[in-house]
Structures are given as structure tokens and as C-alpha cells.
């Protein structure tokens, strides 16, 4: 199995598609927002010049099947446990048809949980507790979590501290008396983990350019359509980034220029967090996309791994 991780705008999906074309592969998207139907432009599922066929729970892009797009409706919930289950069963199916599974995405927590496992996956949802917690404000949820585990709470980044779903899950896990059950999913052993990176300023410029392209291709209309379809503005705001600031603009809370400025800053912060998460992978092979020969070196690494006698799954 091949795994590609890196910050936004590093070209992970385009690269994964090219590698899939070369090595007869299928993609598994590891992105926490691309699982939702209707969130296409804001999540940057594919480039606007791609040849796309949309199907339920997968797309075919430039002749390559991408699993994990449009798994559930907007407004619903999708957890890391859901991703691990989906990715595991999808990987088995891909192997059974003699193709190479390629996991690609920018949600490092999904990839880490899939490769190494995570003990909280065995803790079930506590619906009664969730109903009580959902009545609390974000600040009250944060204070409640702070009382339960001050150290863990203070380590949370700003995005997690403002996300009620993540705060509720953290409280749920720390309050649970459940015994962790071993996973029934196959252990991932034979894989190559590739990380794409670049200096911050290089990525900031790419991100600013990509934001302008998406705005010109209907980002605001996409968010407005979701709201008119009855998707909760609060749910959209909790997604952060494009959906938070465009929702506030559409509701008249801020100007378009302010929304763009705040969104630009949040995307830059996301890039920094995603780069920091690269340190979570001890076995990752990094390639700097700002360097001249990075692609040639990457292709050589993949080819060597793939052509090893035990390099195929």
C-alpha cells in the first residue's frame, strides 16, 4: 500500500492519480471533509480541469477511481473510527482485484490512526451524554474538559478548542468506562509512506492562488446552496476554513474582504499544523516540492519499493 500525506496545496491528489495510472492503483481519500456530499469546491476534491465521473461514495477522475468522496450527506457526522472501517474494507477490495491501494490526504490523524491504530477507536458513542453536552456552549465544553484533563486540554490547538464535536468526543472518551477492544481490521505492515512538504512561504503563495481560483469557480455559491438546502450554518461553521468564513459572509456578519482575509490566515495556520504533523510519522520519506528534482527522486523511491519482490500487496 502506498500512502501520501502532506499539507494542503502540495499536489497530493494529482500525484496520487499519476501514480495510480502508472501502477494500476485506486485511491482512498483520507480527508475529513471530502467525505461529505456537496462539499466539492471548498474541500478542493479535484482540479477544475479534471475529467470527473461522480458515483455514490466514489469518483472516477482522469480514469482513476477515488474512494471516499461523498460517503455521507452534509450535516451528518463522520469520525476517525468510521474512516478506519471504510479504509480497511476498501483496501481489501482493492487488493482482491489486484490493484495497488493508494491512501492520500491531508488529515494526518486519519492516516496515523489507520496505519498505527488508536486506543479510543474501541470506545463507543454515549448518546445520552452527547445529548447533554450538545446543549452546552463551546466555552462551557472547554471548561468541562479542562476539569477532567487539564494537560490534554491545554495541548489542543485553537481549531479543536472551537470545535464542539471534538470537545464532546474528548469528554466522551475521558468519561468512558468501556474496555478497549482489539481491532478486527488487518494490521498494515507493508506500505510506503510519502510526505510532501515545502517552506511555509512557498506553500502560502500556492494556497493564496488556489483560494482565488476556487472563489472564481463558485465557492460562495456552493456554501450558499448548502444553506438554502437546509444545512445548519452552525454545522458549516464547525467545519472551519472556507465554510466558516463564507457562511459568515453570506449571513451578513462580515464583509467579503474580511472573510477572504480571515480565511487566508486560517489556511496558512492549517499548513503549519499539517507540517507539524509530519513529525508524527517515524517512517515517513519526505520530499520538498520546492526543489528542482523532487519528483524524479520520489518516482525513483516508489519504483524501487514497488518492484521489490515483497513490495507489492
Whole-number radius of gyration?
20 Å
Number of domains: 2
CATH superfamily of the largest domain: P-loop containing nucleotide triphosphate hydrolases
| Average pLDDT over all residues | 90
Taking pLDDT < 50 over at least 5 consecutive residues as the criterion, the unreliable ranges are 179-184
CATH fold descriptor of the largest domain: Rossmann fold
The beta-strand count equals 8
Question: For the record, what CATH class of the largest domain applies?
Answer: Alpha Beta
Main beta-sheet annotation: 8 strands, mixed
> Based on the structure given, which CATH architecture of the largest domain is correct?
3-Layer(aba) Sandwich
Strand content: 5-15%
Sequence of strands across the biggest β-sheet = 3-4-5-2-6-1-7-8
Structural class: alpha/beta
Q: Please give the share of residues in helix.
A: 40-55%
Description:
Helix content is 50%, strand content 12%. The protein is an alpha/beta fold. Mean pLDDT is 90; it is low at 179-184. ATP binds at residues 6-13.
